[in-house]
Write a structure and sequence with these properties.
Layout (H helix, E strand, L loop, with lengths): L1 H11 L18 H12 L1 H7 L4 H16 L15 H27 L2 H8 L2 H13 L5 H24 L1 H27 L5 H23 L8 H25 L5 H5 L4 H14 L5 H28 L12
């Protein structure tokens, strides 16, 4: 428990544990890569909507191409694969399965509901992670975090009730996005455990590979063709790997070395805002009153939740003096 507390304090203060080497600050201002990352992830639903290929094929090539792009940068880390024990391999397989399930459900939701509803509901992921951490790891959230969760859920109900008034089809899409957020929350809870023992590169590399394999199996079982698509579709597949994945999520993973996790967490709010604006511009999808009200509640709830996380982290920093192991 003491070691976990020390590591947590070090992470929040951006201190490198047991090492005096390493950059004290990023080579460029974090603002620029943060803006690139937020813009990049906003294009994910736009690219999905632009493709006519089945979502399971889009998901397959998004993960496969990202996996292949990571391969040349593995270096020494790939030579340590044999050190991963059987239990961790099972967790990695489970993480890949739930990531595939997340992509399948969320990407499919864009066929039925609007970009705004789908991405706003997907932003509930931190709330589901909090609930899962409570039941699995006995992490007790503070009152402010619980209030934030309730406010966000009220927003989700508002969006769902508004869309069911529009059509059963839109409500079904909302349900898919909601379940997609649950699936990725399970993925994150697994990651929370395994990344204590496996590097972030190996975790992402293996999980992306497993996710691609899950999509391949799904396509074979369902008889969905994985080849024979026009050049336009292959361009979308490549862009899905490069734009929201490499220039989005992988930039955020890199920034974790230099900025607080809560700063990265705030970017979850960028995707529904940016994607909704792009949906209005490119697909003429106007935001309804229920979506606007629900979106405000969800974003407000997430801000409260992240504020609670920051307050909890700050309270953990009131340890003076710092343990010698990290006072570097």
């Amino acid at each position: 428990m003491l070691n976990e507390t020390i590591i947590r304090i070090a992470a929040e203060r951006n201190i490198i544990v047991h090492s005096s080497s390493g950059p004290a600050k990023p080579p460029v201002s974090p603002v620029f890569p943060l803006l690139i990352g937020m813009l990049a992830i906003s294009f994910a639903p736009i690219l999905v909507r632009a493709s006519d290929a089945p979502v399971s094929v889009q998901g397959l090539y998004r993960m496969l191409f990202t996996f292949l792009m990571m391969l040349p940068f593995g270096g020494k880390q790939l030579r340590t694969l044999h050190k991963i024990n059987r239990k961790d391999w099972l967790l990695l397989l489970a993480a890949g399965f739930f990531l595939a399930l997340h992509f399948l459900l969320w990407m499919a939701s864009l066929t039925y509901t609007s970009i705004a509803s789908s991405t706003i509901l997907l932003a509930l992921e931190p709330v589901f992670v909090m609930i899962g951490a409570f039941f699995l790891f006995k992490d007790r959230p503070g009152k402010l975090a619980v209030i934030g969760m309730l406010v966000a859920l009220i927003g989700a109900i508002s969006i769902g009730s508004g869309d069911i008034g529009l059509s059963q089809r839109a409500f079904f899409g909302d349900a898919l996005s909601f379940l997609g957020a649950l699936a990725v929350a399970v993925n994150m809870l697994i990651a929370k455990q395994i990344m204590r023992r496996v590097s972030s590169y190996l975790y992402s590399f293996i999980v992306f590979g497993v996710t691609a394999a899950c999509f391949a199996v799904y396509n074979v079982v369902r008889g969905i063709p994985m080849t024979g698509y026009p050049a336009k579709e292959w361009l979308v597949f490549v862009l899905l790997a490069i734009v929201p994945t490499v220039f989005g999520h992988m930039i955020f993973n890199w920034l974790l070395k230099y900025v607080k996790p809560t700063t990265i967490s705030m970017t979850v709010l960028a995707e529904p805002v940016g994607a909704s604006l792009l949906g209005m511009l490119l697909f003429r999808e106007m935001i309804t009153g229920f979506q606007l009200i629900g979106g405000v509640f969800i974003i407000a709830g997430l801000i409260l939740y992240m504020r609670a996380e920051k307050l909890e982290a700050d309270s953990a920093l009131h340890v003076d003096p710092l343990p010698a192991a990290i006072a570097e």
